[in-house]
């Protein structure tokens, strides 16, 4: 009898385990804003060949992508009590600047700029270092990382550059409300700092660039 009871209990765990996990599954929507740091893309020199076949520098130019605000959105699904997988998206409008200097004829330095559009769409994972349900802490730390397809669109939509952006970092969540009943389960704030590697296709110097990203958002758990 005891053996049958144990077998029935084991069978119940096997059958009901996935159902219990599904009952705990949750969707989380995060909406916020971030600041993306700028990047220097090096300098170059314009040269001309003189009559004696030597090169002479006509002027120099420096290039950089300015920092900019961005709008971020995430839709996450809880996989375990600490792990969330997320679909991510962002939009920003940084400024690309090219400044000339050291003109051989003494002309004044000139700076040309162009306002770009940057879109990204990808996936990420967030690991809570402390379980929300079992913690009395006001600030809950987490680590996060992701990969996204990114597109940079120039003015007049005449040129588009695509690449893959990779980022990682961490932050804290501040939970304000938790409900056992109803559709809305959680409300809170999320603050994080990440490091993002932009693809080489975005850079005039052909190199990948590491930029800081600081973000703040509100999250709603369902």
Task: Provide a quick synopsis of the model.
The protein is mainly beta. It has one helix spanning 2-24, and strands at residues 27-36, 39-49, 55-65, 68-78, 83-92, 95-101, 111-115, 117-128, 139-153, 160-178, 186-198, 209-221.
Characterize the structure shown.
Helix content is 10%, strand content 62%. The chain has 222 residues and is mostly beta strands.
CATH architecture: Beta Barrel
* Class of secondary structure makeup: mainly beta
Strand order of the largest sheet: 1-4-5-8-9-10-11-12
Helix content: 10-25%
Features:
222 residues, elongated, 1 helix, 4-stranded antiparallel beta sheet
Write the layout of secondary structure elements.
Elements: H1 2-24, E1 27-36, E2 39-49, E3 55-65, E4 68-78, E5 83-92, E6 95-101, E7 111-115, E8 117-128, E9 139-153, E10 160-178, E11 186-198, E12 209-221
Antiparallel strand pairs: 1-4, 1-12, 2-3, 3-6, 4-5, 5-8, 6-7, 8-9, 9-10, 10-11, 11-12
């Amino acid at each position: 009898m005891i053996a049958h009871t144990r077998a029935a209990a084991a069978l119940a765990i096997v059958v009901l385990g996935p159902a219990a996990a599904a009952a705990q599954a949750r969707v989380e929507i995060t909406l916020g804003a971030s600041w993306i740091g700028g990047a220097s893309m090096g300098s170059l020199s314009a040269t001309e060949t003189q009559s004696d076949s030597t090169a002479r520098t006509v002027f120099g130019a420096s290039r950089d992508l300015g920092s900019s605000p961005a709008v971020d959105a995430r839709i996450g699904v809880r996989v375990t009590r600490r792990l969330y997988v997320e679909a991510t998206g962002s939009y920003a409008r940084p400024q690309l600047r090219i400044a000339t200097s050291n003109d051989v004829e003494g002309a004044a330095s000139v700076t040309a700029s162009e306002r770009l559009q940057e879109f990204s769409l990808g996936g990420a994972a967030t690991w809570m270092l402390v379980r929300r349900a079992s913690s009395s802490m006001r600030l809950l730390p987490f680590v996060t990382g992701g990969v996204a397809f990114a597109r940079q669109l120039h003015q007049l939509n005449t040129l588009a550059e695509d690449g893959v952006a990779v980022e990682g970092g961490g932050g804290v969540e501040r939970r304000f409300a938790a409900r056992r009943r109803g559709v809305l389960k959680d409300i809170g704030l999320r603050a994080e700092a990440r490091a993002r590697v932009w693809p080489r296709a975005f850079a005039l110097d052909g190199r990948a660039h590491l930029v800081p990203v600081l973000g703040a958002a509100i999250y709603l758990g369902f």
